[in-house]
Amino acid sequence: MSFFQGKAWGAENMNLTQVLDKLPDRILIKERSYFRWKRDAVLAAVFSVLTLVLCFIPTGFEELQPKNSVRCRGRIIDVDNSEVKQFGIVKIGTQDLTVQILDGPFAGEKVRADNEIIGKLELDKVFKVNDTALMVLSLKDGEIFYANAQDHFRLHIELVLLICFCLLLVSFAGWTGAKALLSFIFSALTIWKILIPLFLKNVDPIAVSLAVVTVLTAAIIFLVGGLTRRGLVAFLGAFFGIITTCVLALTFSRGFHLHGAIKPFSESLLYSGFPHLNLTRIFLAGIFMASAGAVMDLAMDVAASMHEVALKKPDISFTEAVRSGFRVGRAVVGTMTTTLLFAYSGGYITLMMVYMAQGVPLANFFNLNYVAAEVLCTVIGSFGLVTVAPFTAVTGALIYTKRGNQN
Fold first, then answer.
1. Which of 287, 300, 292, 289 is nearest to 241 (CA)?
2. Burial 135-173 (b: 16+ CB within 10 A, else e)
């Protein structure tokens, strides 16, 4: 029986506000907590259903996969390296492998496979006896026609690592961790099932990315933060920050004269039957996508801090609330911009080492395509972080001080 039912309090003629005023604070807090939990549970159920739907939505590119092929695990039982030549630190040639199939319809059979080594360390794989490989078996008339040792089998380790992460997250954060995990899975499926296929179908990458990032921002913030004013403030602040990042990326990219092919495998994409794709707009879309996570984090920090301030001082004025939000934003934004610097530069640490080892001047270094692209990503992403703090502060002041109701 709900505490809000009028007869329990002799309040047949009272409105809801009068009933709430008569409730003890302890009961009122429990009642509000119950409704928040119920609201969060409904939202989590909705996104759980959407996640299941995404699992079964076809991308439209499944028909491009080979029909007469089987993927399975194989153990390397013999390696012939007689055709592999060593040139300094680089190996070139072909490994002749004997592989025993471990699972699938051909489990137990032994097949011969070749492993081409082309002399590129970032692409080559070298097998040894007792290694486990991901095998792709090409079939003809139901029999194995060709066996390809595609790469070392890593799926089991990746799965164990993912399960450990999920258990740690849920055990530490409880219900909030479970919702965060749901938002993680939903985001991953949305990117793979919706964003990537639309890119390949030549739908404008900027529009697609902006729409997908907006939806994911809302999903993550409201799942983790709940359908509350705090969640609304965080979402609006993050949304304005993402829009700012998008506009700045489109504005300043022209002066950098960068082509999207500077990103790994971009040129391979053109040669794979997609020469019509606009790689530059895909590159620009990736700029504000990459910074969206940090933008959400900062927006939630400011929104949560302002929420606590408003709870402790319900009669706070708009100006005071804005100032409080600005103070929190200043404290957080300094480390967040450095976070982006670490994230982007960490991916190109070997490139920086190469040019330092060769004594390349800084003027030449910062004019390189790769480096200029990272400068653009870092600075534009930092712009978004700096602007999201005042956006969130102003939005929070408007919402938290509207009626003195912070729920």
1. 292
2. bbbebeeeebeebbbeeebeeeeeeeeeeeeeeebbeee
Q: Map out the domains of the chain with their CATH numbers.
A: 66-153 (2.40.50), 202-400 (1.20.1640)
Percent above pLDDT 70 for the chain: 88
* Lookup result for tokens 């490989």: 133
Please say if the pLDDT value at position 356 is more than 50.
Answer: yes
What is the value of pTM for the model shown?
0.79
Run of H or E including 198: helix 196-200
Cα–Cα distance, 305 to 230 (Å, whole number): 9
Residue 23 has pLDDT above 50, yes or no: no
What is the model's pLDDT at position 404? 43
Supply the angle between the helices 318-346 and 349-357 in degrees, to the nearest 10.
60
Q: How confident is the model at residue 50 (pLDDT cuts 50, 70, 90)?
A: very high
DSSP 141-164: TTEEEEEEEEEE--HHHHHHHHHH
